[in-house]
Amino acid sequence: MTKTVVKEKAARYGNTEFEDYIEIRPGVRSGKPCFKGTRITVYDVLEYLAGGMTEVELLADFPTLTPQHIRAARAFSDAHKLQLAPGSTA
């Protein structure tokens, strides 16, 4: 996917470019995409949202995350065409 396409998709989520918030570190969480500076995976956040957790509840449970992190997770999901269903494991 080109940088232009990623920027266009990110524009739908308040100009959040997920690359600013998400990184992959091979030694952390088996190389799954995590939010920078944390061990919280993007997939965990997406699964909580798919399971019905609200953004407010998610931010209360993970105080290191911000609304921008959640927008980045959604942009990441959209860019990678992820379809997580409740009860799935990524």
Give a structural overview.
- With 90 residues, the protein is mainly α.
- It has a single domain, classed as Winged helix-like DNA-binding domain superfamily/Winged helix DNA-binding domain (Arc Repressor Mutant, subunit A, Orthogonal Bundle).
- It contains 4 helices and 2 strands; from the N terminus they run αββααα.
- A two-stranded antiparallel sheet has the order 1-2.
- Helix 2 packs across helix 4.
- The longest helix has 13 residues.
- The relative contact order is 0.21.
- The mean pLDDT is 82.
Give the helix/strand layout:
Elements: H1 3-11, E1 22-23, E2 34-35, H2 42-50, H3 55-61, H4 67-79
Antiparallel strand pairs: 1-2
Helix pairs in contact: 1-4, 2-4
What's the architecture, going by CATH?
Orthogonal Bundle
Mind describing the biggest β-sheet? 2 strands, antiparallel
The level of helicity is 40-55%
Mean of all residue-level pLDDT scores:
82
**Helix and strand pattern:** HEEHHH
Spans of at least 5 consecutive residues whose pLDDT stays below 50 are none
Radius of gyration: 12 Å
Q: Which fold does the CATH topology refer to?
A: Arc Repressor Mutant, subunit A
Classification by helices and strands:
mainly alpha
Enumerate the strands of the largest sheet in spatial order, edge to edge or round the barrel. Answer: 1-2
